[in-house]
Structures are given as C-alpha cells and as structure tokens.
Design a protein that fits this description.
- By secondary structure, the protein is an alpha/beta fold.
- It is built from 8 helices and 13 strands.
- It folds into 2 domains: 11-108 and 189-201 and 218-283, P-loop containing nucleotide triphosphate hydrolases (Rossmann fold, 3-Layer(aba) Sandwich); 115-184.
- The two termini are 19 Å apart.
C-alpha cells in the first residue's frame, strides 16, 4: 500500500512476515504464535503464525472481526493462556517457558477488561490498593498510592465511595487505577470501554491517552471500534478473519496529545476509511 506525507495519509505495511518497521522493534516480541483449541467438535485454530514487535511506550490497538482471535492474543500476552506454538518475549524475557509462566516478565503487566471486576463491598481506595495488599505492602503506603492514582484517573474525592455507587465510566477508572497500582510497564486492555455510552467512551479515550502519556506505559488495546483505535494508537493491528493472522499494520501519523477534533482531520478520516475497507475485504 502507498505511503504519503505524515498527517495526510495512513501508512500501512502489508503483513508478509508479520514484522513492523525496524524502528518499532524491541520491547514486546510475539514470534510465530499459534493457538489451537480442542473440543468434542474437533480443533479450532484461533491464531495462526502471528508475529509482532512493539516498541517501549508505544500504543498498539488491535482490531478485527468478532471471533478473529483478538481476545485470545491478549490473553496470551497477559499470561492467562499459553500459546500452542511460538513465543512471547517481554524485555527480552520469555513470558512462557513451555506451559509455565515467567513471573518476572508477568510482573510488568497490568490488565483491564470490559468488566471492571471490582469488589462492590470494597471502597474505591481499597479496590485500587488490592494488588498492593496482596503483595504485602503496608497499609499507609498502599492507601497513599491509591489516593495518588485516584487523582491520576480523575476520581479524587471518591476514594471512600463504594463502587456500587459509581457510574460505569467511573468504575472503569477504578479498574485502570488498580491495574496501575504496582507500576506495570505494560497495560493490556480488552474492550475496556465497550459497554459505555458514546459520550462517556469519548471521555475515557481522552483520559486513557493522558494516562498513557503520563505513565509512559506500553499499551496493547483490543477494540471493535476502528475510530477508537485510530484515535488512541500509534499503530493499528488488523487481524484477518479466523484463524487470526496479521492482515496489516497501519501507522497513525497524528501528533499527541489528540483532542476529539482530530477526528475531522483528513489524515484521521483517511486512516479510518482505509482500515474499514480492509475489514470489509475480510468479509468478502
């Protein structure tokens, strides 16, 4: 696919070998990953020969049809399921050693899912501080950290509230703060704003962009929304229909920080248009 001037056209790389441009290589390495599921009905190949390199502090969005393997990929990166074949490395350390997880690599990861999975009988500060409590950190230190993160995600003043009293967007802010509590270097996010209304989702996208910039986290973000992916990402990964293969990588040539007004700029519109066209080709 053609490349043109920055901020005017998207830059997509055909996924012939699954590798991004050389300057992006380094921090997360996914090499030839396949995932097969076995059931009474037989074998399902969810991911096939997937490879990707992610730079430190890069924001990657993953899009594709339902059932193409997006969540499977994220769960492998999160250490929740092992790949059938291939390898994942974080900062040059294998995440998986056979069927066993590498705890040192795992400690670099923070997870946020569509369901916030909070404890309703805990306060906001207790939910945020829970990972620190499980790691044995003292109460004074973990509460101080919880208040620091509550301010970071826009929840200052709500530390003593119970999560059942919060809106959906506020609960997702708690989930993000909890994931950041132990200073992970990587945030893995699976449709975290998928259940929110459009206005709240826009606000959360702006908030997440700000958080990623301030914490310098590397982010892998799964979404069904191409517009959301282009707004947030440095590069957008498009997976093919099942079995999930790397269909394309599209670099988003838009400066940060991005306001919602960027969605009317020619570069943004063209990037969304091209990705939608590729996705429609997968349906054909």
């Amino acid at each position: 696919m053609s490349s043109t001037l920055a901020r005017q056209q998207p830059r997509s790389e055909a996924a012939t070998d699954g590798q991004p441009p050389p300057q992006a290589a380094g921090y997360i390495e996914v090499e030839g990953v396949c995932k097969r599921y076995h059931s009474r009905r037989g074998e399902t190949l969810a991911l096939d020969s997937f490879s990707l390199s992610v730079a430190q502090e890069e924001f990657i969005a993953v899009v594709g049809q339902s059932g193409c393997g997006k969540t499977t990929l994220l769960r492998i990166l999160a250490g929740l399921i092992a790949p059938t074949e291939g390898q994942v490395k974080v900062a040059d350390q294998p995440l998986w050693d056979g069927g066993k997880r590498n705890d040192e690599a795992l400690a670099k990861l923070g997870l946020v899912f569509q369901d916030a999975n909070l404890f309703p009988w805990y306060s906001v500060e207790d939910n945020i501080a829970l990972p620190l409590r499980l790691r044995g950190q003292g109460k004074r230190e973990r509460i101080a950290r919880a208040h620091e993160l509550a301010e970071l995600v826009g929840l200052a003043g709500f530390e003593g509230s119970y999560v059942r009293e919060l809106s959906g967007g506020m609960r997702q802010r708690v989930a993000i703060a909890r994931a950041l509590s132990y200073n992970p270097e990587i945030l893995l996010m699976d449709e975290p704003f998928g259940a929110l209304d459009a206005i709240t989702r826009d606000r959360m996208n702006q908030e997440l962009q700000s958080i990623a910039l301030r914490t310098k986290a590397t982010v892998v973000f799964v979404t069904h929304s191409i517009t959301e992916a282009v707004f947030l990402a440095d590069r957008v990964v498009l997976l093919s229909a099942r079995p999930g293969r790397l269909r394309s990588l599209t670099r988003v040539e838009l400066e940060r920080p991005r306001s919602l007004d960027v969605q009317t700029e020619p570069g943004f519109v063209q990037t969304v248009k091209e990705l939608r066209h590729q996705l429609m080709e997968e349906d054909a």
